[in-house]
Predict the structure of D-malate dehydrogenase (decarboxylating).
Amino acid sequence: MSTQRTYTIDVIAGDGIGQEVIPPAIRCVDALGARHGYSVVWRERDWGSDYYFTHRRMMPVDGIEQLADGDAILLGAVGHPDLPDHETLWGLLIPIRREFLQYINLRPVRILPGVVSPLRKVTDLDIVVVRENVEGEYSSVGGRVYRGRSEEFAIQEAVFTRTGIERVARFAADLAATRRGRLTSATKSNGIIHSMPLWDEVAADVVRDGAGLTVDSVLIDALAAKVVLDPGAFDVIVASNLFGDILSDLVAAVAGSIGIAPSANINPERRYPSMFEPVHGSAPDIAGRGIANPVGQLWSASLMLGHLGESAAADALMAAVEQTMASGVLTADLGGRADTSEFATQVLRRIDG
Ligand code: GGG
């Protein structure tokens, strides 16, 4: 009798460099499967901006239902220079996060071997941003009136619920307890007078009995400065949808490049598939040149393997990535000369041992 574990994973390479960084991730996950006793049925979805140009939508009407019975989703990038960014995001990425209640967006960042921070004195950086992922400032509540006229205005509401804040704060506190025990909550309750005081109160309630945790609440503007000046002082940062998005790009840039940063959009209850995607977008400026850094995608694939319970394979993938980087094989965004394919070949060589 076979003991092989099989996973069904939907893969949406999407746009731009998503098409270039997804194939190495698939090859690595398959190569690890051969060694670690699992196999993957990849369901490749041709969704994204090219799909939009033919169908006037980013994914099929029943796209969410098509994904619902999979074990996980591996996403590349979305965004096209000929389409408004809100069309591409709200046509694909955001519906998946919301429909599958992926309310945690986990964004770990650290300085990987072989990388020198652009701020040379920064050598100590190991932070996880826990971003609230289905509400907050990313809300569809609002509207535009008098389009194109001088009287035109837009109203954009942010939606913060007690449940939404509580669950993200709890997840972040639990995570901090498994790490260095330090939790920072990003706020702006001095200027945003309704939602942010609620954020502060609920987060404080959640962590009140967080035994052994050091907890603080820092205004987002001061926090942005502090993570640049002294990133070593931070461990886990919990933030709203928008603040978490901005902070994680900032921290990734300080750690060397946005190209390395992974993310996991998690439905912690496992009622629905979770989605794994690099933090970077489709990068039209470098798309098609084969020079994209695949590390953010490979690290995201490692997070996916960990979520599926394949922790040995997840660790082996990151070990292969880190050994490759430590050997001096780096892509151009990190000052190296390797292209996407050469980097992937080196990682695969290490996986194959
Ligand atoms: N890797 C997925 C991607 O293309 N992300 C681009 C982006 O702008 N994301 C915004 C967000 O995460 O909210």
Summary: The domain at 1-102+264-353 is CATH 3.40.718.10 (Isopropylmalate Dehydrogenase). The pocket of glycylglycylglycine is lined by residues 75, 77-79, 89, 245, 277-278, 280-282 (CB under 6 Å). The radius of gyration is 20 Å. The longest strand covers residues 5-14.
